[in-house]
Amino acid sequence: MTVIQQVSGDRMKIIMFLPLLLLVCSVSADQTETAGQQSCPQDIHAALRELTASLAVQNERITVLQRENQELATKVESQKTEIDQLKQQLEVKQVAFSASLLDQGEGDTGPFDDHTTLIFKHVITNIGNAYNKNTGIFTAPVRGAYHFDLTIVGHGNIVAGAFLLRNGEQISITYENPTSGTVSASNGVSLLLEVGDQVFARLLASARIFDSQSHHNTFSGHLIFTM
Questions:
Q1: Global pTM?
Q2: 126: which residues sit within 8 A by CB, 6+ positions away?
């Protein structure tokens, strides 16, 4: 039985006692009326004052206990959320992925009129399943420090370049401007990511890259440590 239930029970006992007190006093008044004794009204008024004061105290106690109970429930819920987050961090111990641009065949990607998200379809490694080969987007499953690498290959006399973005914000650029033959460029960054943050690569407008079954263009990343 909780404290609130006990206090409520005491209040109910007091309320139930009132009719009994009235009945006793009424009987007592009938028995003593002929003798001219009228002490019962005074007695019952005193008892009622005491009961009213007691009820007021009980009501105040219940109000305080209800407020404390609500505060405790809020604190417990907050602690439960923190525990769930810690459990999630403990479960996600290893996250790493690496993917290349084309799943089969060979050919150019680009040029396009606008910056275009690159979808690295050939998944080499995807520990933790945080990389989506259908969208080209890596989504952080846990708060922590991550490292990403982006490598591109171009040929001919067309610029080869791509941005690395976090939640749509440009973080770095991997870029080469070939005049002939084949060129490659690589870049890497370490990022602090929150749960749900997204990292992806986007081909520069008017740029062109080449890939084949040799997997020249790669996008890789891994969790360094949780925070």
A1: 0.61
A2: 97, 99, 133
> Going by C-beta distance under 8 Å and a sequence separation of 6 or more, which residues neighbour residue 155?
178, 181, 182, 183, 210
Q: What is the DSSP letter of 143?
A: S
Determine which of 52-61, 128-137, 189-198 has the lowest per-residue pLDDT on average: 52-61
- Per residue in 10-61, pLDDT (tens digit) is 555 555 555 555 555 555 545 544 444 455 667 777 777 788 888 888 888 8
**135/117 Cα distance (integer angstroms):** 8
Which helix or strand (DSSP H or E) is residue 58 part of?
A: helix 39-91
What ranges make up the beta strands (E) of the chain? 96-100, 107-109, 116-117, 122-127, 131-132, 137-139, 144-155, 160-166, 169-176, 182-193, 198-203, 209-211, 218-226
Domain boundaries, the chain: 3-91, 96-226
Options 2.60.120.40, 3.40.710.10, 2.60.40.2000, 3.40.50.300; which CATH number does 96-226 get?
2.60.120.40
Dist CA 164 CA 174 (whole Å): 8
> What stretch of H or E contains 52?
helix 39-91
Q: What b/e sequence results for 89-121 when a residue is b if at least 16 CB atoms lie within 10 Å of its CB, and e otherwise? A: beebeebbbbbbbbeeeeeebbeeeebbebbbe
If one counts every other C-beta atom within 10 angstroms of the C-beta of residue 6, the result is: 12
